[in-house]
Inverse folding.
């Protein structure tokens, strides 16, 4: 689901100005940065490297001046590696690995598609959101490392990491821009960080 | 736990939305009617996904269709699938650029060309829904193409067996016999699916009230249901139906609009 415009429509709907950034060097002037997912994780990583965004994203994360939200593949690319597309490394912001959704259960359908629950104990992005149902569509998922930044988990086959919050870095496996009111509220929560 | 999905299908052709009954069409209203009289953006807050099909016979002319789609796409925050007239990657690109998250394909599933593989390579298999119009003729099921006009003589079970091996994300089984009748879904369609199926199944055609939706959503082989009947769930029909289904313990998402704040503030 590589629809950049739907994220902008959602931001626009809740009254937040946004801009599609094409020049990596201008990234740091934005207080909040959303890294959406386009295509496969391996492809996204290659393109971030080629366009200079990889370095700028790392700079923004380390500088702690900007808040960053990775969505779907935008979350996966922040991890250390992915099995997808023959295997690739990632930006390695988090040591987690991205693997194909466990298919030990024969009845498990792939992709994992539809609304599913995010179970989280303390999350600033989920603040004041009463329902924890969000829209997922993916075949690869972020494996647990049992670290404190893994604030949200979702079960499909095995349990995987669906929500990350670590200082100025946030990431969701689900699509807030496709998750009705719950997702709009999450985007509003991100911008008020 | 993964929730089941309630999907709404809009049928559009040459400036108007339509009702369909056994694939005979009745013109209902234009986009202004849909938004202002039907109150579609409120209805859309109670569904999990939206499908918009261009059923125009003049399907090569997609401009007007895509303008309407763009208008809808800026006002709903759920996945949108678009279909009708997809015969090339170029058409798909236009659909995705107009706000589609997925595309539905039908006729080209029967062709020898590699369009499914091409779409899958660029947009991913999860973005492809195989949309099958199925008609029962003297106790036998057939897939129909070209707006239900041409019968495909291939054995439907063999066709489905091959289909689940392809790079498609989901499969819609749409009953032509039940289409628009409101007389409940055709559950026998589910018997056509291979035993070891790994694709989500969407059942379509025949939903008339919330008890039909309930029965289908509780069925173990059904991942989602689709309804295209604009008039069966008019007014607060769909909103009430979703409430009833949740109260009856059907596994649907709670979409969060119950709270008094309609738009989240920053």
């Amino acid at each position: 689901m590589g629809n950049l415009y739907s994220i902008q429509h959602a931001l626009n709907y809740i009254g937040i100005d946004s801009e599609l950034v094409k020049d990596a060097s201008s990234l740091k002037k934005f207080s909040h940065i959303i890294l959406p997912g386009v295509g496969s994780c391996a492809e996204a990583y290659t393109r971030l490297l080629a366009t200079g965004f990889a370095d700028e994203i790392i700079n923004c994360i380390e500088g702690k001046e900007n808040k960053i939200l990775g969505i779907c593949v935008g979350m996966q690319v922040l991890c250390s590696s992915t099995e997808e597309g023959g295997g690739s490394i990632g930006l390695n912001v988090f040591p987690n690995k991205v693997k194909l959704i466990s298919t030990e259960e024969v009845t498990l359908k792939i992709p994992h598609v539809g609304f599913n629950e995010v179970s989280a104990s303390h999350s600033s992005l989920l603040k004041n959101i009463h329902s924890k149902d969000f829209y997922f569509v993916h075949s690869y998922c972020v494996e647990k490392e049992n670290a404190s930044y893994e604030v949200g988990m979702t079960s499909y086959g095995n349990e995987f990491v669906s929500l990350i919050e670590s200082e100025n870095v946030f990431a969701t496996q689900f699509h807030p821009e496709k998750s009705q009111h719950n997702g709009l509220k999450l985007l509003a929560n991100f911008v008020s960080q | 736990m993964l929730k089941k999905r309630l999907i709404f299908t809009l049928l559009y052709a040459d400036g108007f939305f339509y009702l369909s009954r056994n694939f005979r069409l009745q013109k209902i209203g234009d986009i202004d009617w849909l938004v202002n009289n039907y109150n579609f953006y409120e209805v859309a807050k109670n569904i999990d996904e939206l499908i918009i099909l261009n059923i125009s016979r003049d399907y090569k002319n997609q401009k007007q269709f895509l303008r309407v789609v763009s208008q809808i796409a800026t006002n709903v925050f759920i996945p949108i699938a678009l279909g009708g007239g997809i015969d090339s990657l170029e058409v798909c690109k236009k659909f995705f650029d107009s706000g589609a998250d997925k595309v539905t394909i039908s006729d080209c599933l029967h062709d020898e060309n590699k369009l499914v593989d091409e779409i899958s390579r660029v947009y991913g298999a999860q973005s492809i829904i195989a949309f099958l119009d199925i008609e029962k003729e003297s106790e036998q099921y057939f897939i129909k193409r070209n707006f239900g006009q041409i019968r495909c003589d291939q054995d439907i079970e063999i066709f489905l067996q091959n289909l689940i091996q392809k790079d498609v994300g989901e499969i819609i089984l749409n009953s032509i016999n039940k289409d628009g009748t409101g007389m409940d879904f055709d559950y026998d369609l589910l018997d056509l699916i291979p035993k070891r199926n790994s694709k989500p199944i969407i059942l379509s055609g025949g939903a008339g009230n919330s008890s039909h939706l309930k029965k289908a959503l509780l069925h173990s082989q059904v991942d989602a249901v689709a309804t295209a009947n604009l008039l069966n769930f008019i007014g607060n029909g769909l909103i009430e139906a979703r409430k009833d289904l949740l109260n009856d313990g059907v596994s649907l998402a709670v979409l969060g609009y119950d709270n008094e704040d309609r738009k989240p503030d920053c």
